[in-house]
Amino acid sequence: MTPSSRLPISPTLSRRHLMLAAAAAGVGSLLPHGTNAQAVTRLIVPFPPGGPADFMGRLLSEKLKDLLGRTLVVDNRPGAGTRLAAEVLKNAPADGTSMLLAPVDPMFIGPAIYANMRFNPATDFKPVTDVSGIQFGLAVSAASPVKTLAQFVQAAKANPDQGSIGITTVGSLLHFLAMDFVALSRSGATLVPYRGGAAMVTELIGGQVASGMDATTTLTEYHRAGKLRVLAVAGDKRADGLPDVPTFAESGYPTLVASSRYVLYAHASTAPATIAQWNQAMRKVLAMPDVREKLGRVGYDLLPGASSEEVVRYTDGLAARWLPVIRASGYKGD
To answer: Which family does it belong to (predicted)?
Structure first.
């Protein structure tokens, strides 16, 4: 185990490009009248370069650029459980030239566990559409004799060394899912926080931790390559990228259902017409066969896009299910 791996807890836009984009997409420029036509539109991603969220952000930016005739760049702002990226959006102009691509769960979990939030997700941001689904899975090394979730619970009960669960993104839905699993299984498993999925997977494959729980976007390729074995996923259905892996519900835990989504957010004061333009453009991108294939290959569940109101209803439902668990845990973030 390495000490650093675990945690204590602008080109000018031509007239021809604009005309082609408007004709092809039917949505026109995202910029309101009077905005500098040379301004760069940025897609803020709350994770570092090289990971699945960054991959998704760059894939979508490239397609949106072509569709809208705009220069889009990914602005990676990792840290503080996505809060740093959210603060960037809060302090950005409300003109549709800064957008946030982030998981929905920190938006309702943050106010419940942090006392020093410098933004209010409910009033500072406007959801534009959902983009992709995120499932969570529990995995063991391919060398482990454990083949099923039931076997993992049995092993954890028999030997505490076989009951460690590496987790990432402390204070996230993933964290509370793992806590709920430990409580429901009565396995006595110990949660081991890591600084990121890569560090956790390295030690999982190496046998330094008995199991690991993370988003399927972290686990899918290792499962396919035979380096990890995903025992179960927590969605209400099997993950699109892991059709051979049962759900927790199928494995004996019918109430253990948790998944999240990536959502495109705008500043709350953004004009409704600009919100509608972004929504329409993103839905067109999400319907593209190559985009669907690439997102599915990485491990995201595929979505067609939704309205702002539908995203709000989804978020409210997720919060109603998990906020009681979070509050009962007594957990408070730094």
So the answer is: Belongs to the UPF0065 (bug) family.
